[in-house]
Predict the 3D structure of the following.
Amino acid sequence: MPRKDLIAIDGSDQAQYAFDWYLKNMYRDGDSVVIAHVAEYNIDIGIPGRGADVEAICAAVKKKNDEIGYLTDTFMNTLRAKHVPAKLLNLQGEKPGEVIVKAAKDENVSSIVLGTRGLGTIRRTLLGSVSEYVVHHASCPVTVVRLPNNN
């Protein structure tokens, strides 16, 4: 029975590795893929006491959107070249884990695949972990793929 799998991507090496791992190890003919990218706009809104620099903000947003477009096009072109049926979701939200879990539910996917940055305990406690959130809150199986340690 064909599956629909969601792969969460960003511009990291970990996401690229998880994507490649999925194609090599999980994908079967007939499956379809949902590529989910959660945009994070960390843009400085101005200089304190001088207000927002609207032109600079617009330029930064355009640059970020161009980067996202290039990134998502790269993943989608790879899937097209391999004749993998795919859908792209460009998502937004302050908490990527929550956004990914909601997208998986809305798309009724069979599973979620994502990479992990392998944060240490302290950094994970302070910053949170997208993969940890998804594992604990998704209503479908989640595969967390870690880049091999090259030591």
